[in-house]
């Protein structure tokens, strides 16, 4: 119905391509448009809280691009706005990571307890999520735009919460391998505050310990791997291929676990949200603002721990 972007030229091009009848010069015009039922926020994180709260208070449903916000305070303000309007749908775009095998992993870990009691969880995500050493400043490097969001920390926290549960304490270390990058607009070199690597250890609510490691500068690093070790076996998920492997204590090697077609997830996020707006019900894998707050809390705890060099306990006050 209405569209707005940072540059009017790109908004007009989008409107032309998709038959949108109104191009706005300011996002507030979209929020205030009486013909708009659902505000779809595709901006970078610095706009998410502002637009989400304004849209909900204007009586609009909200679908917000990931990551939820720049920090936990903004996320909690979004939750408060959603709580003021429980009749409205408020959802966040989920990551594609693990989507294909999500239902199968939850069945194996939660219902069938394929590894027994979880003892240890290991995540390796050295996938070069950020542009490399010589790249110009990207919005993901810009703390004003991205806030505390770093690499795929929030993305994986959301998935891990579904599969193995939330953390109750953690200790983190981060590093910036490239301290300055060139702003492609001004040509000036600016300080980079967003880390290029993040390592976190801690304890899950189940009592299991975890080690999670991310890097955006690991050249030819391995594909994303999640390992879940329990007292009855091992489960492995390959984030690049969505291959699941399992072994019991009696097995000498991991065995492939096929994802049944009726469980295989696919990208239906937009349809799920629109269905929830039209008919009610949940939004599928797209988390509501309350669930989004949980991964923002993990992210905030990680950065607080790294900043102060000490263990942080969750939930955060």
Overall pLDDT score: 95
Quick one: how many beta strands?
16
List low-confidence stretches. Answer: none
Question: What is the 3D shape?
Answer: globular
Structure description:
The chain has 317 residues and is an alpha/beta fold. 30% of the residues lie in helices and 24% in strands. It contains 9 helices and 16 strands. The strands form 4 sheets. The protein has a 9-stranded mixed β-sheet with strand order 15-14-13-12-6-11-10-7-16. It is globular, with a radius of gyration of 21 Å. The two termini are 41 Å apart.
List the helices and strands and how they pair.
Elements: E1 2-3, H1 8-18, E2 22-23, H2 27-32, E3 38-41, H3 48-57, E4 61-64, H4 72-84, E5 90-92, H5 102-111, E6 118-125, H6 143-146, H7 153-163, E7 167-175, E8 180-182, E9 189-191, E10 197-204, E11 209-215, E12 225-230, E13 233-238, E14 243-248, E15 255-257, H8 269-279, H9 289-308, E16 312-313
Parallel strand pairs: 1-2, 3-4, 4-5, 6-11
Antiparallel strand pairs: 6-12, 7-10, 7-16, 8-9, 10-11, 12-13, 13-14, 14-15
């Amino acid at each position: 119905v209405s569209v707005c972007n940072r540059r009017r030229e790109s908004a007009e091009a989008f409107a032309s391509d998709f038959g949108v009848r109104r191009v706005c010069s300011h996002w507030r015009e979209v929020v205030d448009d009486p013909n708009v039922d659902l505000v779809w926020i595709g901006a970078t994180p610095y706009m998410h809280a502002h637009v989400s709260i304004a849209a909900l208070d204007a009586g609009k449903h909200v679908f917000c691009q990931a990551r939820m916000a720049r920090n936990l305070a903004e996320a909690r303000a979004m939750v408060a706005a959603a709580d003021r309007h429980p009749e409205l749908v408020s959802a966040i775009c989920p990551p594609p990571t693990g989507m294909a095998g999500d239902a199968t992993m939850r069945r194996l870990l939660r219902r069938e307890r394929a590894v027994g009691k979880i003892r240890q969880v290991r995540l390796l995500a050295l996938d070069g999520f950020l542009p490399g050493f010589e790249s110009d400043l990207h919005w993901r490097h810009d703390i004003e735009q991205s806030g505390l969001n770093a690499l795929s920390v929030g993305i994986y926290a959301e998935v891990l919460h579904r599969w193995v549960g939330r953390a109750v304490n953690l200790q983190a270390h981060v590093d910036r391998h490239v301290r300055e990058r060139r702003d492609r607009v001004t040509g000036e070199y600016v300080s980079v505050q967003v880390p290029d690597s993040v390592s976190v250890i801690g304890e899950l609510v189940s009592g299991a310990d975890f080690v999670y490691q991310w890097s955006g500068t690991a050249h030819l690093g391995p594909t994303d791997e999640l390992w879940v070790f329990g007292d009855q076996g091992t489960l492995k998920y390959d984030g690049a291929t969505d291959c699941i492997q399992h072994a019991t204590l009696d097995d000498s090697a991991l065995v492939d676990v096929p994802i049944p077609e009726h469980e295989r997830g696919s990208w239906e996020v937009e349809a799920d949200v629109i269905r929830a707006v039209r008919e009610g019900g949940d939004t599928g894998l797209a988390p509501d603002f309350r669930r989004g707050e949980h991964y923002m809390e993990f992210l905030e705890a990680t950065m607080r721990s790294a900043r102060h060099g000490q263990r942080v306990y969750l939930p955060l006050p």
